[in-house]
Design brief:
213 residues, alpha+beta, Arc Repressor Mutant, subunit A, 3-stranded antiparallel beta sheet, 12 helices, 8 strands
Length: 213
């Protein structure tokens, strides 16, 4: 069993993972794929609080995914639209929706899980990183933590438990000395590879060291 490689902190794929797992950011992109919107309209259709929405827009704008244009100063109004890298992110979301519709058990997570809610499944710190590492093969929990750059043990355990409930990972206690827990992807978890392929392609095309190119 190979020791998993550490995830780079600043490569384009890591930056792209940050976009996907940041709560509400993919929902904002999805809403803007329908067309430009004012701030209040965007907050309404995404059900995001104004403070959080302002933070997400600032992050997406810094990455060159969205643009805000002042429409009126009195009263203050802006128009928010996707730039080409943000529009191209649709392919990543499409791959994620397809995977969710085919592999997520509808009995899990809030009773009825629709394909669109696949976004929420992989949000939360470390969730996408865990899956990315396990796509390379099973590994021990302590190796997983190191590859993630020293993930908090409590948070990592919570992410693994949630991914296990969703049927994406399997944890096996190995009694050989020294005893350890081996983590691997299930069939449903491994099937998410096309999502990461789409994400990697998008990142290498549109992001360079965390900046759009």
């Amino acid at each position: 069993m190979k020791v998993p490689k550490a995830i780079p902190n600043h490569d384009p794929v890591t930056t792209a993972l940050g976009v996907l797992q940041e709560k509400w950011a993919p929902h904002v992109i999805r809403a803007l794929l329908e067309g430009s919107k004012g701030f209040n309209e965007l907050a309404r259709v995404t059900a995001v609080s104004p403070v959080t929405l302002a933070q997400r827009l600032e992050q997406l704008e810094a990455l060159g995914l969205v643009r805000k244009t002042i429409v009126s100063e009195q009263p203050p109004r802006v128009s928010i639209e996707l730039l080409p890298p943000g529009i191209a992110f649709e392919r990543v979301l499409e791959a994620l929706y397809l995977w969710g519709s085919q592999h997520l058990d509808p009995r899990l997570e809030r009773g009825l899980l629709e394909a669109e809610e696949a976004i929420d499944v992989l949000q939360g710190r470390w969730a996408m990183g865990v899956v990315r590492i396990l796509l390379a093969g099973p590994c021990r929990v302590n190796e997983l933590a190191r590859a993630l750059g020293g993930a908090n043990p409590t948070t990592l355990t919570q992410r693994l438990e949630r991914l296990e409930r969703l049927g994406m990972v399997h944890r096996e206690v190995v009694t050989l000395m020294p005893p350890h827990t081996l983590v691997s992807l299930t069939e449903a978890g491994a099937a998410i590879r096309p999502v990461f392929n789409a994400l990697e392609s998008w990142a290498n095309t549109h992001l360079v060291s965390g900046r759009t190119g």
